[in-house]
Amino acid sequence: MSYSDWLGRQESSDCVLQLQQANFMAASLGQDRTFNPGDPLPHGWHWLYFLQAAPRDQLGRDGHPKRGGFLPPVDLPRRMWAGGRLQFHSDLPLGALCRKTSTITSIKEKESRQGPLCLVTVTHEISVAESVALVEEHDIVYLRDREPHDPIADGEPPATMQFSESFSSDSTLLFRYSALTFNGHKIHYDLDYCRDIEGYPGLLFHGPLTATLLLDLASRKLGHHNVQSFDFRAMAPIFHDEVILFEGRRDANALELQAVNARGGVSMRARVNNAV
């Protein structure tokens, strides 16, 4: 099937950045903070907003909305968050009315060692008062079903870093983040589905949550307004009840980051360009 008809497809939606959503996120991460109107939304927390509510009868077996509609009807059963690139131009103030415009900018079908895959890139622009505050290129990968004998990637060996923080995951956090992002994907909360259908030993930690925690580390090291861009790539799964290491290293104009799983491999790599 050719998906060329989907290239350039666009949709827009408006959303008020509600305080309650941000306060619930802070509580879920164990952060002792309360937000006020006008406070800048922390980097990565935009994934809590502009949510789509597909009716239950329009969901697939994995809990995602069925294929078609805005995204192309890719004929592969598994859908995963592969990575992305963020550019931060200005703050997203809590309480503000924002507009998000999404455009399908790339569709690539490939063959890999694990079989066929399709990589779809969607470019999102989030604007406040008609001024673009955030640009995101979101990479979605579609894959074949896992086979019982398929190995689970451990990830590349970690690079030597200058600082490291540990973070303990659990199934309650995964449930809360799924609820906050209205994400019905069963790999994050249905252990039987993970084991019996997708062949994983545990619930999967959300890719955007991993990216959000790396961005939080970057903001604390550099300062919120010094984070100019964030490029990240998911490389291996993290499972619930793991202790994750978030690590980094600074050079002149960038911060190199990695998330290391309990198996000792890198689950996500990221790079932050900064203004200091």
Task: Walk me through this protein's architecture.
By secondary structure, this protein is of the alpha+beta class. The chain has a single domain, classed as Hotdog Thioesterase (Thiol Ester Dehydrase, Chain A). It has 4 helices and 10 strands, in the order βαβββββαααββββ. It has helices at 19-28, 171-180, 191-196, 207-222, and strands spanning 10-16, 78-88, 97-112, 115-128, 131-143, 163-168, 227-234, 243-250, 254-260, 266-274. The chain has a 10-stranded antiparallel beta sheet, with helices on one face. α1 packs antiparallel against α2. The longest helix has 16 residues, at 207-222. The chain is globular and about 45 Å long.
**Helix- and strand-based class?**
alpha+beta
Number of domains: 1
CATH superfamily placement: Hotdog Thioesterase
Number of helices: 4
H/E order of the elements? EHEEEEEHHHEEEE
Q: Characterize the main sheet.
A: 10 strands, antiparallel
Query: How far apart are the first and last residues' alpha carbons, in Å?
Result: 48 Å
Strand order of the largest sheet: 1-3-4-5-2-7-10-9-8-6
Secondary-structure arrangement, i.e. CATH architecture: Roll
Describe how the helices and strands are arranged.
Blueprint: E1 10-16, H1 19-28, E2 78-88, E3 97-112, E4 115-128, E5 131-143, E6 163-168, H2 171-180, H3 191-196, H4 207-222, E7 227-234, E8 243-250, E9 254-260, E10 266-274
Antiparallel strand pairs: 1-3, 2-5, 2-7, 3-4, 4-5, 6-8, 7-10, 8-9, 9-10
Helix pairs in contact: 1-2
